[in-house]
């Protein structure tokens, strides 16, 4: 990727069991797990799940929080509340995700219509939680430009 425009690179999620989280994001959400074997071998600090070619979710164990030193107080960030992370999908992938989550007995919210986001109002959206309580919104937009 050589396009250097501003974009979301990664989101770090605090999780209890990174391997179990990677399995959840793979099987229930459909995101490719990366660096799981390396995490198990102890050569990387956490695995990740690929959202697309330029964005990943890092699945950081809560035990890593005590080593966070990038800013004063960073070690207190484990469990810090984030309202939710939103995944924007094509309509068919939106439907497939909802079906996969239901197949894995993951509770999902009702479908909302017209909620505002980065690309305008979404056609449909719903919410779900991962096993660590992180809340996600899944949405899709009609194929029209942002207002």
Quick description:
The protein has 147 residues and is an alpha/beta fold. The protein has three helices and nine strands, in the order E-H-E-H-E-E-E-H-E-E-E-E. The protein has helices at residues 18-29, 36-41, 91-103, and strands spanning 10-15, 32-34, 48-52, 55-61, 85-88, 116-117, 120-121, 124-129, 135-140.
Distinctive features:
21% helix, four-stranded mixed beta sheet, 9 strands, 147 residues, 28% strand
What does this structure look like?
This protein is α/β, with parallel strands linked by helices and 147 residues long. It has 3 helices and 9 strands, in the order E-H-E-H-E-E-E-H-E-E-E-E. The strands form 3 sheets. Strands 1-4-3-2 form a 4-stranded mixed sheet, covered by helices on one side. A 3-stranded mixed sheet has the order 5-9-8, covered by helices on one side. The chain is globular, with a radius of gyration of 16 Å. The two termini are 27 Å apart. The model has no long low-confidence stretch (mean pLDDT 87).
Unreliable segments (pLDDT under 50, ≥5 consecutive)?
A: none
Q: What's the pLDDT, averaged over the residues?
A: 87
Biggest sheet architecture: 4 strands, mixed
Strand order of the largest sheet: 1-4-3-2
Please bin the fraction of helical residues: 10-25%
Approximately how much beta-strand content do the residues carry?
25-35%
The rough form would be described as: globular
Give the total of beta strands.
Answer: 9
Written as H for each helix and E for each strand, in order along the chain, the element string is: EHEHEEEHEEEE
Number of helices: 3
Radius of gyration: 16 Å
Termini distance? 27 Å
Oligomer: single chain
Overall structural class, as computed from helix and strand content, comes to alpha/beta
């Amino acid at each position: 990727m050589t396009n250097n425009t501003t974009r979301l690179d990664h989101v770090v999620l605090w999780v209890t069991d990174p391997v179990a989280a990677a399995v959840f994001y793979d099987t229930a959400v459909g995101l490719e797990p990366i660096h799981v074997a390396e995490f198990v071998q102890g050569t990387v600090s956490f695995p990740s799940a690929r959202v697309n070619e330029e964005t990943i979710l890092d699945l950081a164990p809560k035990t890593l929080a005590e080593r966070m030193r990038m800013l004063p107080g960073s070690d207190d960030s484990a469990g810090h509340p984030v309202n939710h992370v939103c995944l924007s999908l094509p309509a068919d992938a939106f439907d497939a995700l909802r079906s996969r989550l239901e197949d894995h007995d993951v509770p999902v919210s009702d479908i909302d219509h017209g909620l505002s986001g980065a690309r305008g109002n979404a056609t449909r959206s719903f919410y779900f939680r991962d096993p660590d309580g992180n809340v996600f919104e899944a949405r899709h937009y009609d194929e029209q430009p942002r207002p």
